[in-house]
Amino acid sequence: MRKAKTTTSSSRFAYDGLNRVIHERARLSLLTSLLTHPKGLWFGELKDLCALTDGNLNRHLLVLEEAKLISVTKALEGSRTQTRCRITALGRRRYLEYLSVLEQVIVDGAGALNRGSDADEGSPANA
Amino acid sequence: MRKAKTTTSSSRFAYDGLNRVIHERARLSLLTSLLTHPKGLWFGELKDLCALTDGNLNRHLLVLEEAKLISVTKALEGSRTQTRCRITALGRRRYLEYLSVLEQVIVDGAGALNRGSDADEGSPANA
After folding, report:
1. What number is the ipTM of this complex?
2. What's the topology of domain B20-112?
């Protein structure tokens, strides 16, 4: 049981489910914004909601789009191209999976904080 | 109110409090392990609990030590150097602050997931 390098009972705190595409702060911010606005948001709205620069926003949207977690559509409004982003069904599913691992981090972390600093059992929090 | 690029009511989903030193997955894993074992863990124990290689573990421990979130002590046991790591008081405080932002992400994300995909109000989840 302890030989495998993948997550077993021995790698109790590895949190493999913290999908790196989603976990990065700017992308977590973007996905949460889009999740709460399922009909989509304009580029400028996302920029404001997530406090990102144009360059960073473009870079992270590309990563999310390539992972098929969001869809990006462009429309010509007069002489300007407007970009609209939406979370996909896959994006919702992956976010939900991610969230369940995040909840485990909070259970572990908050459990240990609540127990105070006098404990030191070999088993993890919430035993 | 909407001019500033820093977090204001307009950058509702920026989650500025997601401290980058802590948020990185391996370091979040390490800090949670150390938080649940306040008397410290040996290098080998951390490696197993977090499913990290020697190189990655060393690299991330250095980042956490430089941020004063953990303390690292070395002891000679026979001919081998043993490394022991502990979370510092500052580390506990920073982790607690981080956790409160993480809880907000979950409230936002889970709130939106629970509402389903038919809503699209301009205001964020849990309105």
Report:
1. 0.80
2. Arc Repressor Mutant, subunit A (1.10.10)
